[in-house]
Amino acid sequence: MIKIANMHKVFSTEEVETTALNGIDMDVRDGEFVAIMGPSGCGKSTLLNILGLLDNPSEGSYEFYGTEVAKMSERQRAQIRKGNIGFVFQSFNLIDELTVYENVELPLLYLKTPPAERKEKVEAALTRMNMMHRRNHFPQQLSGGQQQRTAIARAVVATPKTILADEPTGNLDSKNGEEVMNLLSQLNAAGTTILMVTHSPYDAGFAHRIVNLFDGKIVTEKVHV
Amino acid sequence: MLKNYLKIAWRNLAKNKVFSFINILGLTIGTTCCMMIFLYIMNEFGVDKFHADKKNIYRVMRGFDMNGTKLSVPYLSGPYAPALLNDYAGSIKKAVRVMHNYGLVTLGNNSFNEKKLYVVDSNFFSFFTFPLVSGNAATVLKDPASVVLTETAAKKYFGNQDPIGKIVELDKSLKLKVTGIAKDVPSNSHLDFDMVVPISNYANEEWIKIWINNNNFTYVLLNDNVQKASLEKSFPKFMDKYMGKDLARFGAKMDLSLTPMSDIYFEPHSAFDNVKHGDKKVVYIFLSIAALILLIACINFTNLSTIRAVERSKEVGLRKVMGALRNHLVYQFIGESVLITLISCLLSLGLLKVLMPVYNHLLGYSLTISWNAAPLYLFLVGVIICVGFLAGSYPAVFLSGFTPIQALKGKLKLGKGGSFFRQTLVVVQFSISVFLVIGTIIIMSQMRYVKNMELGYNQEHSIVLPVNNDMYNNRQAFKNELENLGSVASVSYMSGEPGGFFDMHTLKAEGRNDLVWKTRTEFTDFDYVKTLGLKIIAGRDFSGAFSTDTTEAALINRTAAKSLGFTPEQAIGKWVQNTIRDDKKRRIVGVIEDFNFLSLKEKMDALVITPNDDHRVVVIRLKSGNVTAALAEVKSAFAKISASYPFEYTFLDQKFDELYKTDIRQQTILSIFAGLAIFIACLGLFGLASFTATKRTKEIGVRKVLGSSTQGIVVLLSRELLKPVILATCVAIPAGYFAMNSWLQNFSYRTPMHWWIFAVAASLTIGIALFTISFKAIRAALMNPVTSLRSE
């Protein structure tokens, strides 16, 4: 269960202060699929980064499965992040020097999963994403869709409670985009909470709830039945 | 995880070939240079450490006062060793005399001049640890008619035959049987021999029995419990007992002291101690160079790793997102740095193996520490740990400190602080380079200065021959023979040629009863001044027209006149008397202008030249023209009176150059290392230039779209990179001036430090740096602007 209350995020430079989030209140239930939409610069990615424990809010509270995390250090956040949150990015963010298999294996290495179990989990994730035949390829040798499937395999390999997806289809053609959205839906159907930032109303249509942001505030929420 | 780190490190290296090449090459060259210097230093500090009894072995030194300066020389006369053993039976366990000599070795029809002949006490091989491959150390020299050869000498004399039991003839008088073969003397020994003969052969000779004829080194082995200082305290009594009368007669004072075996090598080299000596200053210079080169390589490494790390920000961000903690990333980056260092060290070992023969050739001797010796590996482990960790830690700490979002978005900026740090490192690197260039140029110009200096005598076309027994017995006939040759201008016998050995004797001088006057002496014939082309500044030369000149005349140099308190003119007619050689007084008939008869490292000394039969060399000045034909004529004259001796000569200028052989070798090695230091620094600059060009690709595109010329872009890029190089030059010039000024103080004759030396060093470094930068800058500037803009 994710619960945020009166969350603010202000970015300061020497001369300018920019308010990215301005008093956000939001709850996400277990197993929910939430899409966050809004124009460029409205604070979607900032919100997703804070939800993903990649950044701290300037103000407000954030409860992640019962633990208050808003004021945690990077080290403490890293400890919670691993194993609990999976990430899928628009630009895939695979490590170019590692193969498909090694990229997917990475989160398990930081979780110190034993080798045999690691192998089993990586292979299961790759099989599920239909990427086993490409396991020894490097990211540059893959199509965009294949890279994103690899990224999703990496996000799910440690069976996290939550997956955060930042415009997961933004760099894909419609066919590959559809495939990725279907995969995310399947994961959600299997019980994983999904929070997704998107510009695409079509992709948002896969979510249970759509949250619209504007100038750092939630302006509308729409629940799909 | 480790496997993952290794994989990524390896793949990163393979992917960024230029970066990896620069880093590994720089570090490899740096490490190889350091290992070479390390081996040299190990060798220097390892001199004489191989003797089993090294802790208790001392060389007995004779101290005396020379015109107000305390001098200590190792030459003692024959009776010292037995007397010391006798008087200090409880303290001195063993004593051994070592006399360095030359000798004619005859084997059938072949004869050789043996220049590394040691005449020693029979316990030589049990006293020192010079291993024998054949023969028993305790007995090998017991029989006076025995001789021990080194492996090289044995091969020279007997080829592949077994030398044991074979007979060699020494100086056409002693028949000696080869009783032992010693391993070749290692380069880390101050003693150096090829042939060892028992001193007992000469036991009945007068020269070995008298106390005032100093001709050998005496070494003593003290008992374990004996303190050097307490033994030395009792030496004045010993000297009084044996030398009291003689010293009183000469009006001299003399004492004895003990130099530990381990200190002998680093004692200053002098004409009175011509064993092999090292110079700690040189060792420290080399040590500093090694440290500086390694520092330059490390700076490259840190700088390039940091800027490269920025390009890996996505990886850093992702690892953080995946749960990597800061320490995971620090370990990863340090690990990579250690890996590169490890690769460099392995390559260095290979390179060292390949370069060792060249290095030994440059040094002029073989380093005794094998390239695969254990301390070398300890050194390498040290390099891997220190360089790997130190050079890797900055990028590691720098990168791991970013938040995952910053890293992931590729927004890592090497902020102002980082840029300042990098620039500072470049300044340090190039300061070192400019400093080394200045040092090299000044050392080279000092050597050239010394070589080309007006020495005050005629060096050209003059050859030096040692006077052997046959020649000595027929010296006038040989001289006449030579003088009749059309190719010979002049001939003179003397006790030492310029640059060679000059005795130091005590003289009395008119009006100076207060003075115990120690001067250098030259014993010669009447043609000395003519043959060497010396200038008489007062009085006259020796002349056959004055029948008393042989026994009653002396020439002195300007310094000698000055030290007696006379002008050259005043000195004429005054008397001097060599208390050792002459029974009566001699009148000074002429004063000659000072000439550099010693190494230019030594100050001009007083010299007294007297006609005397103590002729050890002959200097033959040839007329200019066909030298080869002249030498053939001299050789044939030599064969007439000295057929059994090999005709071995040296040119006088060549002989003088020998004095600077070590300096020239060190100068060559230093120049090579300085060149490599600049090369490594430029490799780093090339890396930085690549980075700058890449970083500013978009800017270059925009500027070109807006109308900037290629030239304008090159200037723009070069200016930024050249700034630290120019600053470095400004820092290094004064530092170089002070350091080299202090180095030059070691020489009595010094080259001036011309302004152009600094200008050349600065232009050379800036020029090389500019060339390196331009290479990248021009490429960036020539790029199509659309490509530049698209790359962003």
UniProtKB/TrEMBL annotation, chain A:
Keywords: ATP-binding, Nucleotide-binding, Translocase, Transport. CDD domains: ABC_MJ0796_LolCDE_FtsE (cd03255). Residues 2-225 form the ABC transporter domain. SUPFAM superfamilies: P-loop containing nucleoside triphosphate hydrolases (SSF52540). One of its GO terms (molecular function) is ATP binding. InterPro entries: AAA+_ATPase, ABC_transporter-like_ATP-bd, MacB-like_ATP-bd, P-loop_NTPase. The keyword Ubl conjugation does not apply. SMART domains: AAA. Belongs to the ABC transporter superfamily. This is ABC transport system ATP-binding protein. It comes from Dyadobacter arcticus. The lineage of its organism: Bacteria, Pseudomonadati, Bacteroidota, Cytophagia, Cytophagales.
TrEMBL record, chain B:
It comes from the Bacteria. Residues 288-400, 672-781 form the ABC3 transporter permease C-terminal domain. The keyword Transferase does not apply. Keywords: Cell membrane, Membrane, Transmembrane, Transmembrane helix. It holds the Pfam family MacB_PCD. It is found in: Cell membrane. It is a multi-pass membrane protein. The keyword Transmembrane applies. InterPro entries: ABC3_permease_C, MacB_PCD, Macrolide_Exporter_MacB. Residues 20-234, 431-633 form the MacB-like periplasmic core domain. The chain crosses the membrane at residues 21-42, 282-304, 329-356, 376-399, 420-444, 669-694, 725-743, 755-775. Coiled coil: none annotated. PANTHER family: ABC-TYPE MACROLIDE FAMILY EXPORT SYSTEM PERMEASE COMPONENT 2, MEMBRANE COMPONENT OF TRANSPORTER-RELATED. This is ABC transport system permease protein. It comes from Dyadobacter arcticus.
